[in-house]
């Protein structure tokens, strides 16, 4: 999946560069950098009944958009982290603790948008995501023995949002996105991730 996502992004980027009509010709074209923050929920995707565990996610994004008429095409890369975690006590022995924490998340993808006013654009997005999960198992008084394990999860992300211009070079946005993570070492983990994000950015 990672190779396919990278190849698709590279092909799309090449096609955009080859189309002079898609050069910067509108208020939503050009490079952009964003600061992001929002709500994060990770849950078992097996039967859809799990409430999962929730936390706060934050990070940054860089991207580049091409505009042709009222249509916008963009590529973007994002790095976020999260406070989302869950803990269990006395799991295997009295006094022990087992915790799982969501770590950094890397996203590479694209988006397509429709300009609905001189200040606003709605868009849909999709791409590849790689999330890190860290587990810790602690036994003994004051954490005498601690075992730490980290695993990177490959998945896909889709989402939709609204971007609103505050000035010719600044904007805010709101976005919902869904990510799914499947197999790890031939084990089907089946995790779903739902996020509600707010962002503030600068276009240049």
From TrEMBL:
InterPro entries per the UniProt record, alphabetical: Beta-barrel_OMP, OMP-like, OMP/PagP_B-barrel
Residues of the Outer membrane protein beta-barrel domain: 10-204
Signal peptide: 1-23
Keywords: Membrane, Signal
UniProt GO cellular component terms: membrane
Subcellular location field: Membrane
Family: Belongs to the Omp25/RopB family.
Protein name, per record: Porin family protein
Organism of derivation: Sphingomonas ginsenosidimutans
